[in-house]
Amino acid sequence: MPTQPTSPGVATGSIAAAATTGALVAIGHRLGSVALPFASIGAALVHRTVSAGNASLVIVGVVLHVTSAFLWSIAFVFLVRRARLRDVVAAIVIAVSELLASRVVTFSTGGGVANVLQLGDQIVLALVYALSLVVGMRFAFPLSRNARSGSDVSRM
Question: In the chain, what are the domain boundaries?
């Protein structure tokens, strides 16, 4: 019987960080620079003007984004496991919370990702976040979630 090598927060966080980073890269590409969303995240933390050409802002932004993705994922796992919310409901709660937190950061600091992304892009990012959390939870608990479907497949 295989053991579960990582915690659900790490598995879910890894998938959420990868998915949302990819979404930010795609949105940034459409805006003219893949580094722009990350530079805006970094600029909010260090209180500097956004510059996609500033490598230190981009690195700070990537690290801050990945760190926050893991923290939101841990909150998601808590809602599913301890608060007993359904994974889809918990994912929506976390995605909306992340969207609102991003907007609060922008309004309070004048920087942040909500400063460079239009509301539609922010909503797409929230949807990617919610979907990646649900998918991440499926990877975090593959045996318990897929035990029934695995036995159904073997009958085919």
Answer: 8-139
Is residue 18 within 8 Å of residue 36, measured between CB atoms? no
* Cα separation, 118 vs 146, whole angstroms: 38
SS3 85: coil
Q: Are 102 and 112 in contact (CB under 8 A)?
A: yes
pLDDT in tens, 2-24: 555 578 889 999 999 999 999 99
Secondary structure letter of residue 84 according to DSSP: -
Tokens 């295989």: give the residue: 2
Express each pLDDT in 68-123 by its tens digit: 999 999 999 999 999 999 999 999 999 999 999 999 999 998 889 999 999 999 99
Q: Residues 6 or more apart from 128 whose CB is under 8 A from it?
A: 19, 20, 23
Alpha helices in 32-118 (DSSP H): 36-46, 55-81, 87-109, 113-116
Orientation of helix 55-81 relative to helix 87-109, angle to 10° = 140
Rounded distance between C-alpha atoms, residue 27 and residue 115, angstroms: 13
Task: Please give the Cα distance from 56 to 22 (Å, whole number).
Answer: 20
Residue 76 neighbours by CB under 8 Å, 6+ apart: 12, 16, 90, 91, 94, 133, 137
